[in-house]
Amino acid sequence: MGFITERERTILQYLREGSTVKEIARKLRVSDTSVSRSISNIKIKTAQLAEDVEFLSTIGLLQIRSGKVEFLTRNRDPKALAALARHNKS
Question: Which has the least CB within 10 A, 2, 18, 44, 58?
Answer without folding.
Answer: 2
